[in-house]
Specification:
93 residues; alpha+beta; five-stranded antiparallel beta sheet; 1 helix; 5 strands; 15% helix; globular
């Protein structure tokens, strides 16, 4: 199960899916962290490497662990937001 103690352990994930600039938003937030801290920068770097992309603003990652559980991570402006729900599509018109 995902929890605050293992959420930053990148080896815990079985897959990471990337949603590019402004194509998804995350809801039902359960944790928010500062994106500009060393921990935030390193976490986003690891996610982008697993997804095979470069970090960008207003992007979302869906993380799946080895038990099939998913959380969604929204990297936007100064925050990294963790939530249980995602909306995908052209949301910014």
């Amino acid at each position: 199960m995902f929890d605050r103690e293992n959420i930053f352990e990148i080896d815990f994930y079985s897959s990471v899916k990337f949603y590019p600039y402004r194509t998804a938003q995350v809801y039902d937030l359960f944790f928010v962290m500062n994106r500009e801290t060393d921990t935030g920068k390193e976490f986003e770097k690891k996610l982008s490497e697993m997804a095979g992309v470069h970090p960008d603003n207003h992007t979302v990652y869906t993380i799946t662990n080895d038990m099939g559980q998913k959380i969604h991570v929204w990297c936007s402006d100064g925050d990294i937001r963790f939530g249980s729900k995602i909306t995908v599509g052209d949301l910014w018109l």
